[in-house]
Description:
This protein is of the alpha+beta class. The protein is 27% helix and 24% strand. It has one domain. Strands 1, 2, 3, 4, 5, 6, 7 and 8 form an 8-stranded antiparallel β-sheet that branches. It is globular. The termini are far apart.
Amino acid sequence: MIKTELLQLWDRDFSGVPMLNRQFRHQFPDRWLRIHSLKASQRYPASEADWQALLSRQNNAISAVFGAGSEVILIRAAHYYIDEPVPVPAGQGFAGITDLMPFEPLEAFDKHTIDAGYEPGAMLRPEFSISVWRNGYFEPLLRLLAVEEESVFFISPDAHAIAAPYDGGIDFIFRDEETREWYRDLLREWLSPSPSGL
């Protein structure tokens, strides 16, 4: 997949929305679903048993949505300020994940124009790479995402879906509300008890 194909795919499934994952639930409220990684809404793993529970739940949830062996696009966020040097793209990725194509940069944007919670000039440049989803293979990256040491989300072109792991769970964006409701039932044991879904 080349840059133009990715942008066409994004426009097809997520039109008009920037690649800023903290905005997805606001932009797609009828397509958004959040699961929690640990019981009782525990945010961070406190033991190796917690880590194994988190990784098992995240792997199984993403596999259920994307399907094992399906193409997956990784979108990594490079954050910087407009008066700073532009970061070098991430190269071929993360320790323990060996088959990623080199990350290719996309057009940067000012996060403040989308979310006033950011300072003016706080820039985000998305970078993308392509791989295949395999249960367990991305655990080194899932570990980094769970402690906020990386900012990456996954796109499944086949499922027309996003999986955006964060420190506490995963935000999913589905192709439509009907699909969201089907997965809400499938993943119901891992949902928040709060009516807000948070």
